[in-house]
Amino acid sequence: MSTPERDEAFLEAFSGWLRTLGTDVNEVSNALRRAEDAYAREVLVGSLNYLFKSIDLIPDGIEDLGMLDDAFVLRTACAMALPHDRTLSSAAASSLAIQADVIRDFLGDDYPRLEKFTEGMRQASVRGRTAIEIAKDPALIDSFCSEVNDWARAYEVPGFSREPRNLIKLRAFLSTKLPAA
Fold first, then answer.
1. Is 74 a residue whose pLDDT tops 90?
2. pTM of whole model > 0.85?
């Protein structure tokens, strides 16, 4: 159930995530370089590969909301990877994984659909390669992380008006676009 207090907390969190997305992406890239577990690497690569995906859940150009799906996928992937790889528990990826609880609270029954989508990013081909392919090859991981770091350097924080209507639009986009559970 939506309340003004909860909505304000979501708006505050999401606004902050947009401000730190470039840094968060770099932190996940660094965690990826250290990850030991194959599944964890695949999920992290999939979430970072999502940055380059031309067809997003929410198109990047949509003011206020366009980059939030990227922030959501990144946090969900960290939450999915963390139980599989002990090297991530001390990394910034651990902090992002904890923030996935905010997404879980925001999306409610739709959160498993976001997990399914994030899981599917392991096999999605972006720029001619899948996360599974990248995660298997240390040289590809290094090259990929360089591309990701370039993206993070070029990232410009989008505007985000902390209007409750943005939460309604965000839920509507995700409810419509996420795969069935």
1. yes
2. yes
